[in-house]
Amino acid sequence: MSEKRDDSQERTEQATARKKQQSQEQGLVARSKDFNALMVLLCSGLFFIALGHSSALKLQHLFESYLAFDPKLLADDNGLFLALKNAAFSAIKVLLPFLILIVAVCIAGPMIIGGWAFSWENVALKFERLDPVKGLSKIFSLKNLVELIKSIFKIALVVLAMALIVYLFMKQIVYFSFADPLVGIKQSVKVLTWSFMLLVGALLIITLFDVPFQLWNYQQELRMTKQEVKDEYKDTEGKPEVKSRLARLQRELLKRRFATEVPQADVIITNPTHYAVALKYDPKKMKAPKVVAKGVDFMAEKIMEIAKQHSVPLVALPPLARTVYFHTEIGEEIPSELYVGVAQVLAYVHQLKLYKRGKSNKPKIPNKIDIPPEMVK
């Protein structure tokens, strides 16, 4: 990692989202060279199985056409140059699909494991890379130890594969120098096919081990100390633009919640402009009235606006509105000390509903609400 670390502390914490993003921006992602090599070999093999025969016939025709001796070309410099140019373009045209496939696989292979990541920081010259102490620490790292073991294992597998090929096809290999050219070519193709299959098998075994290790090692390299997590939190949460964005998101979330909760409320107790508290009471489901929404200033206005749209009663009782606001969170039931005061409001709302139906006289808003002095705000 390009960032400075305090190696005196143990890295026990999982990487944060910001840490992962910074790593991606710096081009530091999980990579497996063995997986890339396996992809190239497999795609090459599939290409030759699908199009190898037709490509070989085209190349054969190309060689037969352009390697045929034509005395006229010796006397014409332009004609000789043109013939060489046409031969080169024809060969490229035949091999171009294979070359495009290899380039595509070389690009797509790394993206499968770690995704796309490129940074000019990795290309730029950094003198800190010449630090011998850091160089020694990298040489004796777990990753390099695993790479050494893999290299030894690769050599052993290749030697084993070659020994197996020689053992299985010793007679055919010796026979090549005496056989008819066409027969020799067929036998060579057979030997090469088996060699290719054994090589792919060996590389597959290595890849099955290497890919999980690279992913695990990448996560280990990203791990952070507790101090790094604290510092990152201070850097991000302490920035004014981040605070502003978080506040905006919180307001948006509250608006969405208000849009669903306020219409279900039984009453909105207001300040009447600075505070608004929405209460809901269902005797069958609740022990006491519950605060389903609350807000100050702009959010209070939003609550009252939604309440008016859905005909939820608004009751202006400033002391009670402030007390409920400061002593109860959204989703909580009101404190027992406020039962009597809130009951007076709910009784008023009930009488108001009866009045609107023509079943009662117009009630008066309670002007004396029982609120414990120590709770008044």
Descriptive report:
Helix 2 (33-66) runs antiparallel to helix 7. A hairpin with a 4-residue loop joins strand 1 (267-270) and strand 2. The protein is built from 12 helices and 4 strands; from the N terminus they run H-H-H-H-H-H-H-H-H-E-E-E-H-E-H-H. It is 64% helix and 5% strand. The protein folds into 2 domains: 17-233, no CATH class; 261-375, secretion proteins EscU (name from scop), CATH 3.40.1690.10. Residues 1-5 have low confidence and may be disordered. The protein has helices at residues 17-25, 33-66, 71-74, 77-114, 132-139, 142-175, 181-222, 226-237, 240-261, 298-309, 318-327, 339-356, and strands at 267-270, 275-280, 290-296, 314-316. Strands 3-2-1-4 form a 4-stranded mixed beta sheet, sandwiched between helices. With 377 residues, the chain is mostly helical.
Helices and strands, with pairings:
Elements: H1 17-25, H2 33-66, H3 71-74, H4 77-114, H5 132-139, H6 142-175, H7 181-222, H8 226-237, H9 240-261, E1 267-270, E2 275-280, E3 290-296, H10 298-309, E4 314-316, H11 318-327, H12 339-356
Parallel strand pairs: 1-4
Antiparallel strand pairs: 1-2, 2-3
Helix pairs in contact: 2-4, 2-7, 6-7, 9-10
